[in-house]
């Protein structure tokens, strides 16, 4: 079997199964940023030296002398006696290098409005915004909540906050008032930066009213003193006297003179909330020097970035970690030119993304498997109408990419030749951990394959011992890495319990994985009660607790059922209170889907809600979600012998088939 790139080699995945692989072309390899395989063993011999070398690419106002302090595991300190300003690393230093005229952002609004922002302009705007935030009382050590659409001001706001040594907590614009408030309270944010609204699916989706609702919840009384509002959607909003300010009015008072101060490398940079196995989201804390080192290194090497000629585009929203590391910090630290698009891929039609690639000559494109599958469903005739010949590297993130989607992505978007980097990482890891390097790795569709240089990730058994090639187990990271989560905000104990109690000195990622016979890593999905819906992490427990908060619901169980497009989909089983008269089983589905949307946000809305009389439980009362997952996927129900009442699953299956 051959393709344009030469030979496709066959590799055994596990005994008896052959997997094709695609080595880099000679041309790609020759020009790649990383094309000497010795990087792996050199980094493995002395990972700290490798990372110290990478950190030297940043500008430090005070050089570090100690690379890693791991004297109090699992609390790592990287480059701790060094000082830097993260925003200046993303901005000012590029100006000092004479790159001020380079485009930083090609912004494309959903309605078709565009802005081109150079590094000089972006720096100027961030400096003005930093002065504005100072006037509003923001100081080093503070937290600022950001609830914004995908517009340049979101990036400007993030950089202005960190320029002052404060930390941001970005909350995805799709989250509800309840979720927003919980995050504001946990971080004790005193300022919220938002917009009136942003464009999504051809209309304005309001944001400011949700901020108002959030701050009015629980009788008001939040930590928030000011709300700064960017005008974008032009939708009607109410402004509360003494609390709310328009960005465009305030900013006029400030010029672009602002000297960045250096802050210690372990200064908190941001908190980003993510779902865990319990109801309460975890505030993942990232700090400055180590995070920026790994975000920028991986951005340069994994995507083979050539900042002087590439046009890079990552479709992630800044509300997620991918938007932090690979829209804001990695690309800007590297002086990249990138596209930021406000809206959805289907607006006004499914050609939108491809028309943007054609228009800006995008060379590196990074998106999620769920989006690729959605485009596949629409059909290749759509992207085929556009000139995508500028593409030279493709990336995937968020969930395992199925080989069928991988091949479609490479053939239809990548002209059958672009390398695909399938990047495994997490909110907690801060940056890419496992991925091919496009100039070195013979790619295997569906596998993230190799830990990055300087990263020691492994598949281990329950005892924490590395398994053999051809075997499966749990994914761990064995040594600290620069962009690792430092703690769960305000809850060191939960940090220790969640990630370190299982294996002691190894970080437990929560993912299952296996080695193939070559030792490449294949990710198999979460092993805990965390679902992955469209590449977004959702907690079973969080949705269950939202459901039982509804006055008609007595009990709820939620599972992530396999879904062709979204990877997994939320399926809920509920028992209604016997006394309640409000909901009929038929009305319950609509009402409860809406209820979850209001409680958490549209991303958590169940695909289906089934009203059942009982839930399958073990004799000790534990809900057997595994059986419900089988039922939700229309599969043969697994072993029911440990159930207290073995007839329950038959009743549920009959109910789902509409027979009861
Ligand atoms: O299960 C893994 C899956 O997404 C989880 C992390 O989710 P989150 O913190 O929201 O970050 C997503 C973006 C980095 C992981 O525990 N995951 C992410 N990337 C991949 C993946 N699973 C398989 N292959 C990937 N490339």
What structural category do the secondary elements indicate? Answer: alpha/beta
Strand content: 15-25%
Largest β-sheet summary? 8 strands, mixed
The stretches of 5 or more residues where confidence is low (pLDDT under 50) are 1-7, 11-15
According to DSSP, the number of beta strands is 34
Distance between the termini: 53 Å
Give average pLDDT, whole number: 94
Q: Enumerate the strands of the largest sheet in spatial order, edge to edge or round the barrel.
A: 16-15-12-10-11-18-19-27
> In angstroms, what is the radius of gyration?
25 Å
Q: What is bound: which ligands?
A: adenosine-5'-monophosphate-propyl ester
Principal-axis shape equals: globular
The helix count comes to: 20
Helix percentage range: 25-40%
Task: Provide a short characterization of the protein structure.
With 660 residues, the protein is of the alpha/beta class. The chain has 20 helices and 34 strands.
Description:
It is a single chain. With 660 residues, this protein is α/β, with parallel strands linked by helices. The chain has an 8-stranded mixed β-sheet, with helices on both faces. Strands 9-8-21-20-22-23-24 form a 7-stranded mixed β-sheet, sandwiched between helices. A 4-stranded antiparallel β-sheet has the order 25-26-28-29, with no helix packed on it. Strand 30 and strand 31 (536-539) form a beta hairpin. Helix 11 packs across helix 12 (321-333). The longest helix has 17 residues, at 119-135. It is globular, with a radius of gyration of 25 Å. The termini are far apart. Bound molecules: adenosine-5'-monophosphate-propyl ester. Adenosine-5'-monophosphate-propyl ester binds at residues 274, 321-322, 397-400, 422-427, 448, 509-511, 523, 525-526, 532, 537.
């Amino acid at each position: 079997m051959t393709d344009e790139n030469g030979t496709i080699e066959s590799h055994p995945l596990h005994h008896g199964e052959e997997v094709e692989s695609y080595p880099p072309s000679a041309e790609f390899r020759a020009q790649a940023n990383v094309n000497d395989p010795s990087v792996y063993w050199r980094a493995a011999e002395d990972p700290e030296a490798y990372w110290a070398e990478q950190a030297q690419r940043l500008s430090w106002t005070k050089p570090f002398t100690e690379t890693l302090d791991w004297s109090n595991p699992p609390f790592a300190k990287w480059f701790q006696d060094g000082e830097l300003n993260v925003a200046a690393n993303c901005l000012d230093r590029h100006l000092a290098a004479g790159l001020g005229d380079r485009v930083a952002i090609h912004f494309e609004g959903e309605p078709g409005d565009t802005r081109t922002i150079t590094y000089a302009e972006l720096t100027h705007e961030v400096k003005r915004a930093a002065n504005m935030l100072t006037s509003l009382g923001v100081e080093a050590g503070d937290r600022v909540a950001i609830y914004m659409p995908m517009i340049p001001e979101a990036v400007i706001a993030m950089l202005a906050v960190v320029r002052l040594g404060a930390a941001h907590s970005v909350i995805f614009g799709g989250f509800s008032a309840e979720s927003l408030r919980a995050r504001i309270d946990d971080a004790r944010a005193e300022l919220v930066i938002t917009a009136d609204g942003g464009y999504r699916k051809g209309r304005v989706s309001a944001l400011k009213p949700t901020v108002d609702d959030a701050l009015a919840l629980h009788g008001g009384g939040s930590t928030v003193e000011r709300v700064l509002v960017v005008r974008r959607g032009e939708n009607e909003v109410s402004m509360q006297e003494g609390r709310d300010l328009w960005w465009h009015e305030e900013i006029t008072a400030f010029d672009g003179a602002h000297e960045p101060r250096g802050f210690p490398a372990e200064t908190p940079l941001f908190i980003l909330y993510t779902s865990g196995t319990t109801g309460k989201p975890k505030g993942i804390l990232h700090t400055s020097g180590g995070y920026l080192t790994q975000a920028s290194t991986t951005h340069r090497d994994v995507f083979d970035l050539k900042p002087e000629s590439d046009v890079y585009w990552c479709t992630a929203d800044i509300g997620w970690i991918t938007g932090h590391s690979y829209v804001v910090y990695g690309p800007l630290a590297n002086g990249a030119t990138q596209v930021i698009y406000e809206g959805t891929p289907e607006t006004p039609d499914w050609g939108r993304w491809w028309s943007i690639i054609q228009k800006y000559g995008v060379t590196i494109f990074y998106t999620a498997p769920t989006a690729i599958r959605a485009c596949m469903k629409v059909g290749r005739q759509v992207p085929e109408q556009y000139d995508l010949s500028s593409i030279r590297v493709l990336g995937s993130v968020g969930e395992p990419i199925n080989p069928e989607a991988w091949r479609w992505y490479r053939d239809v978007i990548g002209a059958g030749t672009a390398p695909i980097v399938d990047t495994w990482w997490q909110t907690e890891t801060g940056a890419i951990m496992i991925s091919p390097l496009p100039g070195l790795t013979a790619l295997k569709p569906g596998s993230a394959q190799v830990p990055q240089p300087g990263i020691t990730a492994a598949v281990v058994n329950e005892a924490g011992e590395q398994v053999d090639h051809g075997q499966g187990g749990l994914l761990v990271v064995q040594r600290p890495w620069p962009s690792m989560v430092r703690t769960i905000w305000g809850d060191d104990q939960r940090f220790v319990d969640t990630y370190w109690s299982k294996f002691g000195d190894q970080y437990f990622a929560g993912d299952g994985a296996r080695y193939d016979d070559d030792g490449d890593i294949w990710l198999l999905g979460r092993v805990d009660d965390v679902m992955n819906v469209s590449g977004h992490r959702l907690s079973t427990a969080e949705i269950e607790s939202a459901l039982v908060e509804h006055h008609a619901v007595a009990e709820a169980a939620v599972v992530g059922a396999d879904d062709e497009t979204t990877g997994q989909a939320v399926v809920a089983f509920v028992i209604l209170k016997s006394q309640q008269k409000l909901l009929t089983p038929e009305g319950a589905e609509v009402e409860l889907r809406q209820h979850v949307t209001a409680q958490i946000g549209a991303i958590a809305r169940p695909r289906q809600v089934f009203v059942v009389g009982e839930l399958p439980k073990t004799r000790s009362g534990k809900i057997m979600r595994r059986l419900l997952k089988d039922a939700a996927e229309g599969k043969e129900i697994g072993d029911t012998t440990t159930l207290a009442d073995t007839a329950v699953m038959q009743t549920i299956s009959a109910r789902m088939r509409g027979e009861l």
